[in-house]
Amino acid sequence: MTNPESRESLCLHFLWDWLKEQQSLLRSPFFPVLFSLTVYLSCCLPYACLDLLCSRLHVCFIFPISVLYWYWKPVFFPPLAPDMLSVVRDILACLLLFDMQYFFWHLLHHKVTWLYNSFHKDVWELLSLSLFSTLNPALLGCHPLTEMLFFITNIYLSVEAHSGYEFPWSPRRLVPFGLYGGAHHHDLHHLRFKVNYAPYFTHWDRLFGTLLGPDTKRASSNTNTFKRM
Ligand SMILES: [Zn+2]
Ligand SMILES: [Zn+2]
Question: What would the mean pLDDT of 167-173 be, rounded to a whole number?
Fold first, then answer.
């Protein structure tokens, strides 16, 4: 006759035997850190995935549009790679052009009530913004490699602006003279609506009097969700 208790503990025996075989790892000084970190991150992972799925803007619109663009885009391979200086210059030019287009397009949506109610945060607005970002490298005659690097930079900056975090290596801290807005700057747009229309840089908002810096008194309240590291 089989003892039910022993049957129940059978899988524990398997687990324990397997763990005993890993003794060298378990006795290693790295094990406490590795074990704690793995357990902690595994528990956080489902929530991180939920956060990602809830971010409809990026997952439902920007991601599929990006996939379709790279799927249909004609592929050509110039024999030579671009030089580093022209890559940096062209990426900066594409970013500044995109920043200007986004600023005026965004401002227009906030000034015209009908546009704001019909299109702001809607798929059509995102489509037009994706159009700007994909047209700019073609308009400026960029090398395909530069175009790919601009795509990576633009997506990184867009995700960073919506991340709610600011690290010592965040663009706002790397670009001098307050020329770059960053995550807190963009958070303030979502909180106050009538400020910080540009996605990345600050010069257009400064020129039009719509800039709200993260350190101003008006900005410091009601921004508890922002995390500065
Ligand atoms: Zn936003
Ligand atoms: Zn807006």
Answer: 91
